[in-house]
Design a protein that fits this description.
Layout (H helix, E strand, L loop, with lengths): L1 E2 L2 E2 L2 H25 L1 H10 L12 E7 L3 H12 L6 E7 L6 H11 L3 E5 L9 H12 L4 E6 L2 E3 L4 H6 L8 E3 L10 H22 L11 E4 H6 L15 H7 L5 E3 L7 E3 L5 H12 L7 H27 L2 H28 L7 H19 L14
Parallel strand pairs: 3-4, 3-6, 4-5, 8-10
Antiparallel strand pairs: 1-2, 6-9, 7-11, 8-9
Helix pairs in contact: 1-11, 1-12, 7-13, 10-13
Length: about 400
């Protein structure tokens, strides 16, 4: 075949075909799912979405293990929420610091604060799941709003913004829980990974395909928890206290997403790459318990991303002038789409900008996950390493 006197071999055409397929999927993925938060934000601005006008009572459940310092800093921010009817239940999960003394002192100052505790000597694999169960059982109200002891709300309207989604028929509300911004390369990696994961699970949920949420900021009805028999199906797992219940029970009709910047909860980030990798590995360890549809969707994107970069590299090596120009144009189109969508979304949530680091992380993060599921604690070493 000749185009402008330039010959295309069969191999070049196959490479271009593979690259175009990968490019098409990647562009579709970003425009449909990663762009979901921005699209939903525009829809809300045009008032095309009905939100709850009443304000149902809410039980906020927080589990704490040796979190006295964080509770001292952040708990008053939750207790001072501008919302008519709510309670905060802190579950002391076997703390050895002065958490219990702090809670007793704070209960005298804040009538909305209640507490309970995990009995001494509990031997569950995940005492957090036991702590959550005790907190939910102690809750007075139907709606359970979850966050962590090292989190702080963006402002005093956090409950209000999450609760405006508590419409009739809704059983899950998914929010966003970013990490606090610090000046370090590790923090930049962590904040990007957290943002991308959030845009993905929120984007899928907005398109009727919810598959996970994060315990730093999500809500569900108390009766859903008991209908699913709590954590009975995954008590043997260290993680999964948040995403597995969403994966099992959330659907297109009973799930809402809250995307306002005022609804987010900020968390203390890991300080070292090692700590973050361990946390990520823990979270990935429960992904094999997702539904088959969720696993296919979540596997397809990194596969197509890998194909995109690999086929682009091969076109650069083996392609002629025309094929390199075509591939380069498509590569630039995806890159610009990424930069615009990621950075606009990050700005909406009060996050940082990503430029060259975006492309480094875009390649690095799937490789990290691939290593973890093949050679890490959830791969070949899974039988030899005990989670702590």
């Amino acid at each position: 075949m000749y185009i402008s006197n330039i010959e295309f071999s069969v191999f070049e055409l196959i490479l271009l075909g593979l690259f175009f397929v990968a490019f098409s999927y990647q562009l579709y993925f970003y425009l449909r799912y990663i762009n979901g938060v921005l699209s939903y934000k525009r829809k809300l601005k045009k008032s095309n979405t009905i939100l709850q006008s009443s304000q149902p009572a809410v039980s906020v459940v927080i589990c704490a293990r040796d979190e006295a310092e964080n509770l001292r800093k952040y708990l008053p921010l939750f207790l001072d929420q501008d919302y008519p009817d709510f309670e905060i239940i802190v579950v002391n999960d076997g703390s050895t610091d002065d958490t219990e003394l702090l809670l007793n002192d704070m209960k005298e100052q804040y009538p909305k604060l209640r507490s309970t505790f995990v009995p001494y000597g509990a031997t569950n694999v995940s005492t957090k799941k036991l702590a959550l169960t005790l907190g939910i059982k102690a809750a007075k109200y139907d709606w359970i709003l979850l966050t962590d002891a090292d989190c702080m709300p963006d402002g005093n309207s956090w409950i209000t913004n999450m609760a405006r989604n508590f419409n009739q028929g809704v059983e899950f509300v998914l929010g966003y829980g970013p990490y606090l911004i610090e000046k370090s390369a590790v923090n930049k990696l962590i904040t990007f990974d957290t943002l991308f994961i959030a845009l993905q699970y929120m984007g899928y949920a907005l398109k009727g395909k919810p598959y996970m949420g994060v315990g730093r900021n999500m809500a569900y009805r108390k009766d859903v928890f008991f209908r699913m028999k709590g954590f009975a199906s995954n008590l043997h797992l260290r993680s999964g206290d948040d995403d597995l219940i969403v994966n099992a029970a959330a659907n297109a009709f009973n799930t809402k997403v809250e995307v306002s910047a005022e609804s987010i909860t900020w968390s203390e980030p890991n300080k070292t790459l090692e700590d973050w990798l361990f946390q990520k590995e823990r979270h990935l360890s429960v992904s094999s318990f997702y539904s088959a549809k969720s696993k296919i969707r979540l596997s397809l994107e990194p596969i197509m991303r890998g194909l995109f970069y690999l086929s682009f590299l091969l076109v650069l090596i083996f392609g002629n002038f025309i094929s390199i120009i075509v591939a380069g144009t498509l590569f630039l189109t995806r890159a610009i789409s990424q930069l615009v969508i990621i950075n606009k979304s990050s700005k909406h949530f009060g996050g940082r900008n990503y430029f060259l680091s975006l492309f480094v992380f875009d390649i690095y993060l799937p490789l990290v996950s691939l290593y973890m599921v093949t050679f890490g604690r959830i791969g070949s070493r899974s039988k030899r390493i005990v989670w702590k």
